[in-house]
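Supplementary Note 3. Input sequence used for the single-chain structure prediction.
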Amino acid sequence: MKIIVDESIPYGAEAFGLLGDVSLMPGRAITPDTLRDADALIIRTITKVDDALLEGTSVQFVGTCTIGEDHVDLDAMARRGVAFSSAPGCNSNSVAEYMTSALLTLHERGVLTLEGQTLGVVGYGNVGTKVAAKARMLGMNVVLCDPPLAEAQGGGVFQPMSDILDCDVITLHVPLTHEGPHATHHLMSAENLACLKPGCVLFNSSRGPVIDNAALLAALEAGQLATAVLDVWEFEPRLNPALVDRCALATQHIAGYSLDGKLNATQQIYEAACRHFGLTPDWRAEQVDEHPPIDSITVGGGYWDALRAAVRLNYDIRDDDQLVRDSMGLPAEERGPAFDNLRKKYRRRFEFRHTTVTVEPADARTEKTLAELGFRVYHA
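The predicted structure, written as discrete structure tokens, is reproduced below.
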């Protein structure tokens, strides 16, 4: 069996190599010629799978190590009898920890007070549920909006989009869809942006085109909202430098890029491939023996300082923000490749659960919040 695997997938060679001959390739370099005699294709979001890519190939199975599916043509694969699997929920905790780092950074800068402020969560799936939970741990009030889920469950805890637009902070965790009653393409249109509460902060770590980026830039320039935190961008990998400049934090589509999240995805797609080809799984993510360079720290200096110190040991969003801003200084033709390269060469990022935190002097409130956020807390 021949398997083409995006080279950015951690342990892709080790896992899928148990099933056949693996060829590692850059995601944007995968073409019909490279798939001519391939049996399986394992990708991430930058590889677009459609009729044009699959024409004349022997591909029987496509797996994407991502939660999103907007880069694949499901109808085309169904017509061709190609099996497909994605990895829902694989990096949900990673995105929630990204949001935690971002919220604490904006709190430090005086943009948000967090405690008592209202966070509107649009999309209450695997990611949205974890983001909402961590926001509550930081003292925020959470309002939920998920029209498809509200229809399926009969409303209940979910509020309409009109209520979300009045929140202090809004964060988007929806798939990218273009059709139907709840299409999310340009969900944040010029009209909705104009209705935001003055001083609102808008987050997007779902898909870039969920926000009309041109309208967002105009709204930021007009002062219709305070600022934005963007991890995803319309027309990636070509970012608008003016929009980057207007954002409080700008990152390179890496919110879900923890090693834990990536390994979860590799595991899910490996098992899906085994099911399709009738093989017995013989690789587990738990076999990977990787640890952060520092796995035990002591924090203090007050509640918020302690939270920031612990979070930033595992993930400091400011580092990624600076990398993106630096790339905007490159010639226009070099920015897209630079964006891809920042993702391809992304560092090993470990989730909070790998770190043991000691609070000195001991403080029950700080210890409780750190434990709720996912850290191991040491009690002397």
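The chain has a mean pLDDT of 96. The radius of gyration is 21 Å.
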